[in-house]
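Record type: ASSEMBLY
Status: queued
Input:
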Amino acid sequence: MGDHHHGPAKGLSRWLFTTNHKDIGTMYLWFSFAMFILGGSFAMIIRAELFQPGMQLVDPLFFNQMTTLHGLVMVFGAIMPSFVGLANWMIPMMIGAPDMALPRMNNWSFWILPPAFLLLASTLFMEGGAPAFGWTFYAPLSTTYAAPSVTIFIFCIHVLGISSIMGSINIIATVMNMRAPGMTYMKMPLFVWTWLITAFLLVAVMPVLAGAVTMMLMDIHFGTSFFSAAGGGDPVLFQHVFWFFGHPEVYIIILPAFGVVSQIIPAFARKPLFGYDSMVYATASIAFLSFIVWAHHMYTVGMPVAGELFFMYATMLIAVPTGVKVFNWISTMWRGALTFETPMLFCLGFLVLFTIGGFTGLMLSIAPADFQYHDSYFVVAHFHYVMVAGAVFSMTAAVYYWLPKWCGKMYSETMGKTHFWISFIGFNLTFFPQHFVGLAGMPRRIPDYALQFADFNMMSSIGAFIYGSSQILFLYNVIATIVSGKPVSDDKVWDGAEGLEWTVPTPAPYHTFETPPKVDASHAHS
Amino acid sequence: MTTETSTEYEKYYVPEKSKLAVCATIGLILSIFGASYGLNEMTFGDGSGSWGILWVGLAIFAGTLFVWFRTTIRENIAGMNSAQLKKSYVLGMFWFIFSEVMFFFAFFGALFYVRNLAGPWLAGEGDGGRMNGLLWEGFQYSWPMASTPQESIGGAGNQLIANNGTFESYDKSMAFGDASAWYAWLPLWNTLILLSSSVTVHIAHLGLLDGNKKKFNLWLGLTVLLGIIFVFVQAYEYYEAYEHFGLTLNSGIYGSTFFMLTGFHGFHVMMGMTMLLIQWIRSVKFGHFTADDHFGFEASSWYWHFVDVVWVFLFLFVYIL
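Status: finished
Output:
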């Protein structure tokens, strides 16, 4: 053990055996980007098939495998691990801690992810094919009628759950126990707050998902009848259990994104965040409400009217804390000294497009109207506005914002801005027309469609190819920065940036805050 | 805001690089690979099955956990753990138990749903009731429902889709409630055993706080013994269920929820028992634990109280109500 003032080890063993939060954060970020490319290429196959009506490239079973794996890989492989990686890098530096609270478990949480996804992807080559029942894996499609690969899928979900739970416990322990003296809860940067609440949600609902897939496993292999009416169970029970996990899950994805935006907008508005306290309370309210709205995903399944009404009103309530957040971000920018570097551009893109996604969510929350929208492309458009323009845009903003601090070099602003505008145009071209075809009745997850949807679908596909290829520019920009970017010497890379992470040297040394820093008012929340 | 004490902060021990995580990963992934291929009855080219991979994986996993806990115990004995690090372990255990609570929450939720909503709907009640005429007309709902709707209106012969078509015929009688005498009712005994084991583990804790290691060892050993008895009684109950009551995993939704809840609870009892047994061995053989440093024991006892509380709910909602 001995001396702690050491640098990173050499070679592969540095990454395999590391306990350093920055190494682990880096691995999470690269892994999630790889999964983003993999899930994105599944999406490209989907859009290529939908380029024209009729069956063009792939057979329907393979198309179903693509929609399923696209969703699973993006949610569990790309978005969630990317924010965990960000949490690993930033939370210890933001609260003045030497590392995460439980460093060895931290490494384990990461390392079970890649083999689990490898196993999941390997089902593509199994007899019967990969899971083909949609990322929501409704019974009985995923039980009675599933291919043998569903068993592997179930165990992979267990492993992903174990990873998330361990990662979250680590984050909770770090935030509750490792804050530097003087860093009270209400002085924490908002990114730390949103992650604390997200971690709580994860510990609460990932075990419920584990329960759901365990019941599937029992139904498939051990003859129980949880999800089979023939045995006295109910397939609708699956949907309830799944969405009890699934709705908090979508906030698990978006809350850290809120945190990122709440860090970046003040930095480029050169003003403190407007309404810090209300941001914290709004985040907590959203988390609470996320537990009592799950059935709005299943209005058409045949619930009692009282249930429909309860879930409709509870869902609409969420607009209130979310509105508080949006108005706080706008107020932060009001009369600020705004500049529009790449991170800020992505945050503004987030703000506009996420709000659109929020509004379509409000439309979907109206139970009688949802009977028209349900399982149509309108839903697809809605959740891609919040998942892609919400979570992925803010994640991209975070990479541009903190990359100089991570590697000590500045990215190319021209390339970054080009990346933003291509992404912004490509994204809207992809998903905005989907609102129209959805309202006109085009169902999701179907490889063919009626002729009248042809034009909008072609636009969608072209947009998707543009958005997809813009990520290559992003990858190139990041690698070029790391390899040959212009060195940054300033500790505080952005002149408006606030927070403890900007008080350490640039690039951030391998170990930071081995003794706790002194926290004064100027380092309190940005 | 500064504090004067910040200069004399205890150093937080950040371990050097460690192979534990990678070994545990190998064990875990081999286990799920072996289990999923084994369950699908897939074999390799030479005809050998996949279950062997599961056992190898589990062995690696168990071995890694052993080394992992041994490492942390040695670090603590070597005095490397600051008060702050110890608090991290406390928080970790607390939130782990919370996640376990939510795992059981899913199964209890399923139980409430089928008992109060899905069952009555199948029998034609309320908004969901129209399917009764289409599926099993004349089906009457009652709980415990140890048969399938099809069987209850005339046999499983025509059943095609339920449970992957693997139905067999069972002679069913849910007789747990009408056993001839109250003292023959195993769940009651199990309740008494588990509740008293929570008391004994607490007495052991009190002994340890007094510095009375003899008392600690005695009462902790007793707790482990009670845990073992519980598992045996539960196993006997399963035997009775399968052999005499026709209550099996296949016997409709009651069998599903019954074995899921009691089975996972029993599994957690075994885990908790193993944890306590290890603490007992540590204390008896190696003289570990002092009045003010015994988190390994305390965490295990929290876990034990947790399985006890789950059992109270189980006893109420599965056996009595």
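Annotation: The CA atoms of residues 111 and 257 of chain B lie 6 Å apart.
Annotation: Chain B touches chain A through 86 residues (CB under 8 Å).
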